[in-house]
Amino acid sequence: AQSVAQPEDQVNVAEGNPLTVKCTYSVSGNPYLFWYVQYPNRGLQFLLKYITGDNLVKGSYGFEAEFNKSQTSFHLKKPSALVSDSALYFCAVRGNQAGTALIFGKGTTLSVSS
Amino acid sequence: KAGVTQTPRYLIKTRGQQVTLSCSPISGHRSVSWYQQTPGQGLQFLFEYFSETQRNKGNFPGRFSGRQFSNSRSEMNVSTLELGDSALYLCASSGGQDFSEAFFGQGTRLTVV
Q1: Cα distance from B18 to chain A (closest Cα, Å)?
Q2: For chain A, how are helix, strand and coil distributed in percent, rounded to 5?
Q3: Per residue in A17-68, pLDDT tens?
Q4: CA distance B49 to B67
């Protein structure tokens, strides 16, 4: 069975500092991995995805993620955090067939202080 | 390009009633998925439709049903509402290919009283 773990409920970082939001996954076969962000009372916004190829994936708003097959991880990173990055972040995995469901982690609340 | 549109944004219903939620996908997208988001269970997959056919279904009771129309718009119906059905219901559309990412609407907040 596929699963996603986000080990931290909350990550606190000062503005201007680098941030990392952790994600590990368990899936058979080659995974499709995604990061989404959710602001209060809003839907999910797509940040980036890993399908194949380069292990470092660049996405929206300066975010990037590193795929590590041996550690089954897909951590979200940003070199310099902004207060406006404060939100709820979800890692998700799905199988590589169209129509399969996204399996989400529990989410990590990122809080960036000024 | 317009995003995914969900209507209504907010609903209050009484136990035992039924409700229909609507989702208009991004133009050209033929796949629509529905998810339920609650504080306790997080985000859970309900079902996915592609070209008017249900391709995949999550582990929800039969009270939850959906359909997709020829213009790719989708509706989700919940019958005999229970208090536990209170949640944010999110619709997502995608191009439908293996590698496609899903784009989400703002959701419908359903409160059952």
Answers
A1: 23
A2: 5, 50, 45
A3: 999 999 999 988 888 999 999 998 888 999 999 998 889 999 999 999 999 9
A4: 7
